[in-house]
């Protein structure tokens, strides 16, 4: 674990990244299923750009930091 902690990856950080990944995966899977049902996958393209912003906001909200720079 020393190798990961030297990069700033603590267990808390890894769990936040895991939650952000899980949320993104569930939303993408749901949109893919909707797109397949409508035979139009462009609904994924609409979400793709926003997915990065959503992942950052999820990580920010789960981190508990009150400032953008952290501690």
Task: Write a brief structural summary.
By secondary structure, the chain is mainly alpha-helical. 77% of the residues lie in helices and 0% in strands. Helix 2 packs antiparallel against helix 3.
Q: Main β-sheet, in a few words? A: none
Computed Rg? 16 Å
Shape field: elongated
Structural class of the helices, strands and pairings? mainly alpha
Beta-strand residue fraction: under 5%
Q: Treating each run of at least 4 consecutive H or I residues as one helix, how many helices?
A: 3
DSSP helix fraction: over 70%
What is the total tally of β strands? 0
Straight-line N-to-C gap: 22 Å
Mean pLDDT comes to 82
Runs in which pLDDT lies below 50 for 5 or more consecutive residues are none
Work out the oligomeric state of the chains in this entry: single chain
Strand and helix order: HHH
Written description of the protein model:
This protein is mostly helical. 77% of the residues lie in helices and 0% in strands. It contains three helices and no strands. It has helices at 2-6, 11-38, 42-63. Helix 2 packs antiparallel against helix 3 (42-63). It is elongated and about 45 Å long. The two termini are 22 Å apart. The mean pLDDT is 82.
């Amino acid at each position: 674990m020393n190798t990961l902690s030297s990069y700033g990856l603590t267990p808390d950080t890894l769990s936040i990244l895991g939650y952000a990944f899980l949320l993104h995966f569930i939303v993408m899977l749901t949109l893919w299923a909707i797109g397949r049902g409508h035979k139009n996958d462009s609904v994924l393209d609409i979400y793709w750009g926003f997915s990065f912003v959503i992942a950052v906001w999820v990580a920010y909200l789960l981190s508990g930091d009150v400032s953008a720079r952290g501690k």
